[in-house]
Write a structure and sequence with these properties.
By secondary structure, this protein is α+β, with helices and mostly antiparallel strands. It has helices at 3-13, 29-45, and strands at residues 18-22, 25-28. The protein is 49% helix and 16% strand. Helix 1 crosses helix 2 (29-45).
């Protein structure tokens, strides 16, 4: 199981449970999963495919 599969599974099983805490902010598994899916969709629209290198600043 890779990290994306783990995130998707936890988003289904525990959507409201806290996944990430940074300072005073917290995100649920469902919120993180939505953000990851939006990023993946945006990269796909830019023709960045699976296995290609990319960087985030």
């Amino acid at each position: 199981m890779n990290i994306s599969e783990l995130l998707a599974r936890n988003a289904r099983k525990f959507p409201e449970k806290t996944a990430v805490i940074e300072g005073e902010s917290a995100l649920s598994y469902a919120e993180v999963n939505r953000m990851v899916n939006r990023l993946a969709s945006s990269l796909a629209r830019l023709a960045v495919g699976r296995g290609e290198a990319s960087a985030v600043c």
